[in-house]
């Protein structure tokens, strides 16, 4: 009698990749819609307002979830490394940085006082970009850098 010590592979890995990539693409389109609505002919104001900020943050959330789903499916049943776990946490941390930076004026710790219409300023843009860099670093750490196993 032989024992099978191989790792169970998920049969739906391809489906999870497709769903994750769909989330990421929809998120990217939402992000572009919020960041540059003029591309879609929807620019109604010279400033970046609350709805635009929420739209691109929602898009960024979809990109994060879709990227996680796609990259998690690449592991296909293998145990994730510590680097991959750190990568997941970096993706989450990067989103929190981007969200906190983008919504700073609305939370009351931004540079604009609340009676004035808050605008998306330079420091907020820098915070969102830093959050996106942290998210990208997390995605790189989530890649399965391993030797090919012959099953």
Overall geometric form:
elongated
Strand content: under 5%
Query: What is the H/E order?
Result: HHHHH
Provide the structure class: mainly alpha
Percentage of residues in helical conformation: 55-70%
Overall pLDDT score? 84
**How many H/I helices?**
5
Notes on the structure:
The structure is a single chain. This protein is an all-alpha fold and 151 residues long. The protein has one domain (14-142). 63% of the residues lie in helices and 0% in strands. The chain has helices at residues 13-35, 50-75, 82-102, 104-107, 122-142. It is elongated and about 65 Å long. The protein starts with 12 loop residues before the first helix and ends in a 9-residue tail after the last helix. Mean pLDDT is 84; it is low at 1-6.
Features:
151 residues; mainly alpha; 5 helices; elongated
Put the structure in a nutshell.
This protein is mainly alpha-helical and 151 residues long. It has five helices and no strands.
SSE blueprint and pairings:
Blueprint: H1 13-35, H2 50-75, H3 82-102, H4 104-107, H5 122-142
Helix pairs in contact: 1-2, 2-3, 3-5
């Amino acid at each position: 009698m032989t024992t099978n010590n191989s790792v169970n592979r998920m049969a739906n890995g391809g489906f999870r990749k497709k769903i994750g990539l769909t989330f990421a693409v929809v998120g990217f389109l939402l992000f572009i819609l919020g960041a540059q609505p003029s591309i879609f002919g929807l620019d109604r104001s010279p400033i970046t307002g609350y709805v635009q900020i929420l739209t691109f943050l929602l898009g960024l959330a979809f990109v994060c979830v879709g990227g996680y789903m796609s990259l998690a499916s690449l592991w296909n049943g293998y145990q994730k490394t510590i680097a991959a776990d750190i990568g997941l946490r970096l993706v989450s941390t990067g989103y929190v940085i981007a969200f906190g930076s983008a919504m700073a004026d609305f939370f009351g710790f931004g540079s604009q006082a609340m009676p004035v219409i808050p605008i998306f300023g330079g420091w907020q843009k820098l915070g969102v970009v830093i959050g996106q860099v942290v998210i990208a670093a997390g995605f790189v750490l989530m890649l399965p850098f391993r030797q090919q196993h012959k099953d």
